[in-house]
Specification:
The N and C termini lie far apart (about 40 Å). This protein has 2 domains: about 70 residues; about 110 residues, no CATH class. The chain is mainly α. It is built from 9 helices and no strands. Helices cover about 65% and strands about 0% of the residues.
Length: about 180
Amino acid sequence: MSTSADQQGPEQDLSTWAIERLQSFAMDARGRQLEAVRIVAQGHAYHSGQPQEARRQWAKLSLLANRRMHSDCPGDQSRAVQQDFMLRMWVIDQLGPDDKDPDWSPETLASETVAALDLTPPQASALAGRWRDLAIEQIRDLRRHKNLTAHLERLVNHIEPSPTRDQLLIWTQLRRLLP
């Protein structure tokens, strides 16, 4: 698919586009175009000179682009989930949680994080203790778990005591042992 955004010119600099125009573009974009939308929208979300609500809208657009980019490749899916978790954690940290919106709810993020982990903490711990002897696929899976739990030290500060929080606390300690 070739669009005018593939061409050179100042009017094609996505970072200068209004959010409505970029949202419309993202609905038909694919591949690298979606990655460009994700990056530009995330950059706007990080811009502290904008109102909080505008920053949340830009973050939503970044999440939309990220979620639309995924492929069937496990590595791509894992990357997309990690980027999703990290941006959501940033918004919760910097702009505050919002339990009315699941993307900005610490409890929802905690539940989705636990659901994304294939291994239990005891399984991951047993593998981590001998990771140098493991097959590359198992090492890759341990790395995936480490990446998917990168936000947990910050997330547990936003969650009330619960079994889910207890599990996340175990993962925060365990991830230090992962390759």
